[in-house]
Amino acid sequence: MEMDLKVSTGMAGFDDTIDSLRLGDNVVWQVDNINAYKDIITPFVHKALKDNRKVVYVRFGQHESLVSEKEVVQYNVDAKRGFESFATEIHRLIEKEGLKTFYVFDSLTDLLSNWYSDLMIGNFFKVCCPYLYELDTVAYFAINRNVHTYSTIARIRETTQVLLDLYEVNQKHYIHPLKVWQRYSPTMFFPHLIEADRVKSITASSEASALFSDINRVEERMDYWDVIFSKAREDLQKDQATQGHTKRLLMSLLIGEESRMFELCDQYFTLQDIVDIAAREVGTGFIGGKSVGMLLARKILKSDPEQRFTKYMEAHDSFYIGSDIFYTYIVQNGWWKLRVKQKTKEGYYKYARELREKILNGEFPTNIKEQFVQVLEYFGQSPIIVRSSSLLEDNFGNAFAGKYDSVFCVNQGTPEERYQALEKAIRTVYASTMNEDALEYRMNRSLFEKDEQMAILIQRVSGDHYEDNFFPHVAGVGNSSNLYVWDKSVDMDAGMIRLVFGLGTRAVDRTVDDYAKIVALDQPTRKPLMHMDDLKKFSQHGVDILSISKNELTSVKVDDAIANVWDVERNLFASIDTETSFRLKDLGYKNMPTPYILDFKNLLKNSTFASIMKEILAEISRVYDYPVDVEFTANFRDKANFYINIVQCRPLQTKGLGKSVTIPEIDENQACFIQTEGNFMGGNIRLPIDYCIYVDMDGYLALNEQDKYSVARTIGKITRDLKNERLLLVGPGRWGTTTPSLGVPVHFSEIQHVNAICEVSSQEKGFMPELSYGSHFFQDIVESDIFYVALFDGEEGVRFEPSYIVERENLLYKWGKNPKLTNQVIHVSEVTGMELLSDIVKQKLLCK
């Protein structure tokens, strides 16, 4: 070994005992108190400075400063900001200080006062230590004896190069080497008495037993997290003030920092509630916004003084995978450096795909796997859904609607097969943090540097078995404020729901030629928003279900699904399609399922379901003091007896009504681009427009599918380039559909910079866009403050004059030379002086 690789501890006798330290060594001291650690640091720092070494002190503890020498560089790092920010900041300072720097770190045990988790201390050491080793540094760490779990000590022992026990007995210091990597002597691993530069090895059994007789090193210790929650159970028997203090501490660990949501939780949750939530958590850390939103909504309804909702509430028995497991998964698989590189502006998109692929194929630690098994054993073979529940999700201002994945586990097969499906689902949710839409969302809200800690919510799927299919009777999305007031008689404050038969996936995702039932809760039986004379055509035709035999989420026809519903009268949801039934008989068909039309007429007219949903939305919104968006399921015994399950609740981002806007009267001879009454969303607006991007309906219809996707990608490029301008986007059918035959299949990230969008429908040409309201796409629109117009070309009171735009110069050539798109399909015009005006009271809109 080269002599220049050897490093002194500052204690010459001990250097001889362990054959000195080496460049690259991480040195961990187990100590009884911080003063003992300081005694051992002082000679190390003095010797390093004497040898002209650069010494860095990393300060984060609550204890007194350990290093006072002026020549030492000190960094103060805030552990309160959480594991990811803390570990990333230290990674970057190590990178900055470079090769052969010497470090002193505060006691790692002090991190417990901020993180309350042994698991995360082990994670921090595991990501920090190898990087220090790579750079040929020497670093001192300390942990307090008899505080940390054996698994934490084991991870530290496995990762560090040198592990030393430091005892103070009768005012004398003893060092007991436990691990000294790549060095050995016959007496190295005996305890040693340290007296200045003199070292005495305690080899005699009588002396060693006398030394260790009062030192307890074999008692099993709980994770500090479990210690805190165990103490909380004892506090349940104490006075209200003590319970209140303990509750807020536990909420800071499970829910997050002070916020409007935190205040609401503090108002409604008791200490018993929080302890019960913690009892259903796998691992440690936050349970995430989606879990908090669901639990808070349920508690608000349960706490109603008049007990209006209790008899209608379906019980829940969800589990929560703590956010610390997400970090542990990344650390244990060795991806932390990649994660740090991805969190920079330069690497944000560059490394996301690689990290996503790795996350999809990693391994979970054995102790975490065992907890997953226990969760699965609890649910048996009941279908479950694994849902994202990130720290920023479903909070005021950031709903992340549809940005992260949710995965159904039908939960069929052998225990091994069911376990593999659960693990795969969890990995899929974790990997979705690197999805393009999620990355764009965080970047555009200046959240990319924030810790986006991914917890997971595991819910039992609501519903029952109907032959091979599993589904709830109805599901949907409810909004407490109905901004889509297409008629002056509609009460905006009564709210609305999008209702489907079967799983609620069809209520939040657009489906080809399929329509959710849109219900204004003040007038639930009134006709739909559109002029839909053909009730069957504009109803739900497919039902999303979980197939037991196929072990997957799939779709079946309405008639096949409803034919096997045995536990309630089918006419609650559907009416027999007599016309089709007679026609089938005339054609000689026998043994066919009875044809139905899903109109929910009986449900909405003869049950209290709509009024209860109206009251539920109003009550949650009242408490939030803000409009809310709720996902729900409902299962019926009959029209009077049903159970509603609130599976998600979040604040609904809305744009205020703004000041009154006076819209000028124009006659038919005056030119304009768009004029309509109703069918717009976003309140009062007076918006100057700089550029209009118009997609021609006839030209678009004539394209093949590949070229329709090309239109979407081209529009994405244009809107990104013009993101600092005020943009109006006008096109046929549904923006954001996944099916090009229904409209332009843009991703929301491609149009998030526009100020207003218009969906043009034409019954004559077959473009009848279902309203965006309630879908994930809609949630993006209102969150991003994008004004929305649905234009029914050809209807009374509607003017739509594309010539107002297309007679101007087409600037499309700046973004591509595809001859199929130029002048035929996409028209980009600079429209300085154009304004978009709306008056929500008079329900009038004008663009000219």
Describe this structure in words.
This protein is α+β, with helices and mostly antiparallel strands and 848 residues long. The protein has four domains: 3-212, P-loop containing nucleotide triphosphate hydrolases (Rossmann fold), CATH 3.40.50; 280-460, ATP-grasp fold, A domain (Dna Ligase, domain 1, 2-Layer Sandwich), CATH 3.30.1490; 473-651, 2-Layer Sandwich (D-amino Acid Aminotransferase, Chain A, domain 1), CATH 3.30.470.20; 674-847, no CATH class. The protein has 28 helices and 36 strands. A nine-stranded mixed sheet has the order 5-4-6-7-3-8-9-10-11. The chain has a nine-stranded mixed sheet with strand order 29-33-32-31-30-35-36-28-34. The chain has a five-stranded mixed sheet with strand order 12-13-16-14-15. Strand 8 and strand 9 form a beta hairpin. Helix 15 runs antiparallel to helix 17 (415-431). Mean pLDDT is 87; it is low at 529-533 and 654-659.
The profile of the biggest β sheet is: 9 strands, mixed
Number of strands: 36
Which percent range describes the beta-strand content? 15-25%
Oligomeric status of the shown chains? single chain
CATH superfamily of the largest domain: P-loop containing nucleotide triphosphate hydrolases
Distance between the termini: 82 Å
Tertiary shape: elongated
Give the low-confidence spans.
529-533, 654-659
Tell me the number of helical segments per DSSP (H or I, 4 or more residues long).
28
